[in-house]
Amino acid sequence: MKKYIFILTFIIPVFVFTSCTESDDEFFASTTLTANDLIEVSLTGDEVTVSSNIPRILPQTTNPFDIFLTSTSRKMFFNYTIQKRNSNNVWEYITPSNIVLLNGENQTGSYISGIAVLDAIDTTYEYESKITLTTGQYRISFDPEIVTLNAQNAVMVTVKTSVTGISNNMLEFTIN
Amino acid sequence: MKKISYLLVIFLSINAFSQSNSTAYDSLPSPILSKKSELKIDVFHFVTYGRLGISYERFLNKDFSGGITGIFLNKKSTRDNFLTDDTRTLIDYQIIPYVRYALSKSATNLYYLEGFVNVNGGNYKELTHLNNGSADYVVITKHRYTDLALGGSIGYKLYLKECFVIDLTVGIGKNILQENSPSTVARMGINLGYRF
């Protein structure tokens, strides 16, 4: 019994004390801005166009904010998904096969990461993609955050935004 | 966590070993008691953080001792990566005067309680908002701090050949002067030393 008391004498403090070491003192180098209407979506025939033009010097209520000087990143990304209503009236996620990239980069999977790339004269992060869809009922949903990519040695910038002209950052439409 | 688990295993192993071997010697006066000084090197800080930790302990009587620990330096990679890693503070040095009270009767293996003061200094980083004349921007900046922590520890000592010592310490202190220093400082050590 005495031995177990001795053992407990150490076990309990070790777990209590070591849960509060200096490595718990964490630092996240990130800053968040707000700027509305930085993502656009439009529908023409069977094509959906998604675009985003983010000024490097982003207007704010007081002084404008320099995204590139803060993040040193030439890329910013945002995520969106496309769902199609199936024959059972259930929405299911689709990975579109016909995407034409006009500006920036895409990473496609269960969702699409649209990557806006800073232009040659360092003024605007640009992204534009045209997605051709087959007949059916669709909805496209946006995560209304644009985040700098790979800002490992600087400050990560997150821009809270909205999608121009649609509410709740979701657009429901039908392709005939 | 892995390092902490190793430390725990070492604690328990030495504890079990000492429990099975100490009773026959406990009733005899130990020559250890006539040796009043102890010098130790901290293996834990050296292996985990690349820091140099040295302690001197003076035995005042059978129950009480006082000492001082100095922990200095950091690995070059730790210093180099500080601005870009995810830690907010980096402790450069710690000077720790302490007083210990022996909880066990045995002179060859014993538990102790410790009260300490930890004078610690180093760097902290924060986000600084600047303006270049046309726009605001944010950078990571590094600053110095010095603080003083008060804390307590428990520990275990095992003497081998009446002069070599293994000294294990676990404790925590709270910094009380600066708001940008680490709020707490851990007092952990696996010390190997010599008593003379």
Provide a concise account of the structure shown.
The complex is a heterodimer of chains A (176) and B (196). By secondary structure, chain A is mainly beta. Chain A is built from two helices and 15 strands.
**Biggest β-sheet: strands ordered side by side in the sheet of chain B:** 1-2-3-4-5-6-7-8
Largest sheet of chain A: 13 strands, mixed
For the largest beta-sheet of chain B, the strand count, sense and barrel status come to: 8 strands, antiparallel, barrel
Number of strands of chain A: 15
User: Would you tell me the overall average pLDDT of chain B?
Assistant: 85
Helix content of chain B: 10-25%
Model description:
- The complex is a heterodimer of chains A (176) and B (196).
- Chain A is mostly beta strands.
- Helices cover 12% and strands 49% of the residues of chain A.
- Chain A has helices at 2-18, 67-71, and strands spanning 30-34, 39-44, 47-55, 57-58, 65-66, 75-85, 91-94, 99-103, 105-108, 112-118, 124-132, 136-142, 145-148, 156-160, 170-175.
- In chain A, a hairpin with a 7-residue loop joins β13 (145-148) and β14.
- The longest helix of chain A has 17 residues, at 2-18.
- Chain B has a single domain (31-195), classed as Beta Barrel (Porin), CATH 2.40.160.20.
- Chain B has 4 helices and 8 strands.
- An 8-stranded antiparallel β-barrel of chain B has the order 1-2-3-4-5-6-7-8.
- Chain B starts with a helix and ends with a strand.
Describe the secondary structure blueprint for this structure.
The complex is a heterodimer of chains A (176) and B (196).
Chain A: H1 2-18, E1 30-34, E2 39-44, E3 47-55, E4 57-58, E5 65-66, H2 67-71, E6 75-85, E7 91-94, E8 99-103, E9 105-108, E10 112-118, E11 124-132, E12 136-142, E13 145-148, E14 156-160, E15 170-175
Parallel strand pairs in A: 1-14
Antiparallel strand pairs in A: 2-3, 3-11, 4-5, 6-7, 6-10, 6-12, 6-13, 8-11, 9-10, 10-11, 12-15, 13-14
Chain B: H1 2-21, H2 23-26, E1 37-42, H3 43-49, E2 52-59, E3 64-72, H4 76-81, E4 89-102, E5 109-131, E6 136-160, E7 164-175, E8 184-195
Antiparallel strand pairs in B: 1-2, 1-8, 2-3, 3-4, 4-5, 5-6, 6-7, 7-8
